[in-house]
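Hi support team,

I submitted a single chain yesterday and got back a structure, but I'm not sure I'm reading the token output correctly. Could someone confirm the output below corresponds to the sequence I sent? I've pasted both exactly as they appear in my results page.

Thanks,
R.
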Amino acid sequence: QEQLVESGGGSVRSGGSLRLSCAATGGIFSRYCMAWFRQVPGKEREGVARIQTDDSALYSMSAKGRFTISRDNAKNTVYLQMNNLKPEDSAKYYCAAVRSSFCGLGSQYGYSDWGQGTQVTVSA
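Hi R., thanks for writing in. Yes, this is the structure output for that exact sequence:
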């Protein structure tokens, strides 16, 4: 099981950028599929991006072209670079992990380990 700690959230104006980081401890990071989800109050947690152990990435339609997920196995860290942020990107962002080579974005239930989340607020 991995312990995950997110950082990098904050408040930005529309069009701005943020870089989220998620530091993992407790497992062999390179064997974990990693993802970012986000959630606003009253809504289901939705997948934003995931990166598999072979570095292949998958994005939600809303994230594609604006967000980039990456991982540094030497630092046990996964990143989410978010550019051209919009007010609708405002949410609490969670890092997720599952010990598998493959993972998806369709459901949060495919992931076993979660961080506490970091808030992202984008103003118009």
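A quick pointer for reading it: Residues 4 and 115 are 5 Å apart (CA to CA). Let us know if anything else looks off.

Best,
Support desk
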